[in-house]
Amino acid sequence: MAEHTKAIFPGSFDPLTNGHLDIIKRALRIFDGLTIAILDNSQKNSLFTVEERIPLIKTELKEFGDRIQVKAFSGLLVEFAKQENVKVVIRGLRAISDYDYEAQMALMNKNLYSEIETLFFIAREEYSYVSSSIVKQAAVLGGDMAKFLPLSVLAAMKKKLS
Ligand code: ADP
Fold it and tell me: Which atom of ligand 1 is nearest the CA belonging to 14?
């Protein structure tokens, strides 16, 4: 019997995109529960505060009920994972350019906590070039981001930029 019935999906989610949503839904086909862990990084220039991001993500995922938890964390991911009693970290890989940083982070996390495993999902083709930052850049310039963002996020973004 596999012991890993829960996983953590950490990130900035500033904001949540359809690319993130796709990874979340794919992870939920494998794991019973998933904690979306929003890194509270005050150094990063963010569009939405963590307090704004949490309800946006919860709203988008409410169909999954208590299989989804949305929490903020700061500090080491492995410490948060221990606290949550979770040993699997989910990350998405879009391009080869993601690989270096992701491999470094996965190895560092493994070094800090040998029981942790990082699982990578290859981004779906249509979202392979979608990142929160490119969506923000294009939205600021007036681009229509409806294809890349869930409806509630799209509305919140329009409001924020108006
Ligand atoms: P971080 O700043 O930690 O990379 P992000 O919110 O940008 O946080 O991304 C969180 C995770 O989601 C990362 O593993 C990233 O690779 C993945 N991800 C982001 N956008 C996509 C996408 N379009 N398709 C698949 N995975 C994605």
Answer: 6
